[in-house]
């Protein structure tokens, strides 16, 4: 702060100063085309991906949720989260398109994520992923994303006992898997079981639950799959069959 400004006389008009050089906005709005429906494929439109080369010319730090002193490093490798890249890309769009984003259409959303809330949006989200009339049975499918050259493809997982997804409690994990952090996955072996209704404290849920997995294949664990840890390992474990 300029010390002279703090000593100015009352009601004295002085010019304000901005210490930063911001990227200026366009002088006019860059109008966009009407957003097409995503329920079908348009052959006359372009499809593809955005490719960015990022160089850190200033210090960058993205902390983890558990230990803020550590850089975001899933699987032991420092990475920039996709949400951060999405925000950076949106900033570029804001600059070239006049940058005055607002509630231009409250009924349209690019994405949303809500599971345990009580709003109408949360309810709509749950309806997409679980069947409330069938003990909240999963509506979604499991798959494996693989990189092939410069593209990524999702291959659906195999159905075992009419399901692709299995749950296992923390206490039933092998000891060597109990200390794994979120975003970790491991090849494991298990015995498929049928989907059943399981009682919980507040609601009954329908899913396939296994009580044992192994890091090596044997007669008790014949099926190969992946243990995928997408959150706190003590609260949620999902084993996906291949």
Give short descriptive properties of this protein.
single chain, 242 residues, alpha+beta, seven-stranded mixed β-sheet, two-stranded antiparallel sheet, 12% helix
Describe this structure in words.
The protein is of the alpha+beta class and 242 residues long. Helices cover 12% and strands 20% of the residues. Strand 1 (130-131) and strand 2 form a beta hairpin. The longest helix is centred in the middle third of the chain and has 15 residues, at 82-96.
Rg, rounded, reads 25 Å
Poorly predicted regions are 1-6, 237-242
Report the strand count: 11
Q: How many helical elements?
A: 3
Mean pLDDT: 77
Main structural class: alpha+beta
* Oligomeric description of these chains: single chain
The strand line-up of the biggest sheet is: 7-8-5-11-10-6-9
Our measurement of the CA-to-CA distance between the termini, rounded to an integer number of angstroms, reads 62 Å
User: Per the principal axes of the C-alpha atoms, what is the gross shape?
Assistant: extended
| Strand and helix order | HHHEEEEEEEEEEE
Percentage of residues in strands: 15-25%
Instruction: Sketch the major β-sheet.
Output: 7 strands, mixed
**What helical percentage do the residues reach?**
10-25%
